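The passage that follows is intended for readers who have already worked through the single-chain material. We present the inputs for a multi-component assembly, then the predicted structure in tokenized form, and finally a short commentary. You are encouraged to pause after the input and sketch how you expect the pieces to fit together before reading on.
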Amino acid sequence: MNKEEVVAKLLPVLEGKGPGDIISIASQELGDRLMMTTAFGYSGIVLLSFVKDVAPNLPIYFIDTGFHFEETLKLRLKIMAEWNINIQRLASTRFKKDLDEILGREAYRTNPDLCCYHRKVEPLLNLMKEDTVWLSATRRDQSPTRVGTSVIEIDGRGQIKISPLFNWTSDDCWTYIRKYDLPYNPLHDQYYPSIGCYPCTNPVDEGGTERSGRWTGIDKIECGLHVPLNPDSSND
Ligand code: SF4
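Having made your guess, compare it with the prediction:
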């Protein structure tokens, strides 16, 4: 089956199902083609909690840019230990000094798109094969760039992507986290609704949007990992 046929087959099956069923069906249908990435944001925690219950052997990756908050790194270790799941570290294959040479030491400020490409996107592209199916915690209400997210779609890079939380709201996720007392990044309690690399993540003032603390002050709200099919509707 080509990608279009996979999406056409699975879309009616997955539509209307809850995250646990979506992950379970996708795992049975797609086998080792399915993988997940997470940066341990709160929706990622919700998705991980379903994965640990219904597909505990799913390959899970954390893209380590070298700029993550200490709180994020500690959360990965805590979840792996307490939930008995393996979350593999994925990083640029280049040595840090080579990256600094290519990008400049403060590329997150001078050329954040290039910095994101080499530190986030390239490691992911090196991992994914043509037929890899990406399980993501993307939600429609995260940003204007994500409102078109579907439960299963072919993204702008030609990769099949499954988003079991596509129609969950921020409140839905937090209700679930509180109900099941899930661990989460303590920075969320310090006005960081979205958490990425520390040079590019700020707390958000009251009235700010979920991703307004990311790359504050410049015209950038996506790192380039998630590429929508329609570039006009979207630009992690
Ligand atoms: S979020 Fe900032 S520090 Fe992290 S890879 Fe992108 S530009 Fe670089």
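Commentary: The pocket of iron/sulfur cluster is lined by residues 65, 67, 108, 112, 115-116, 119-120, 196-197, 199-200, 223 (CB under 6 Å). The helical segments are 3-14, 19-30, 42-54, 70-83, 96-103, 107-110, 112-127, 170-179. How closely did your sketch match?
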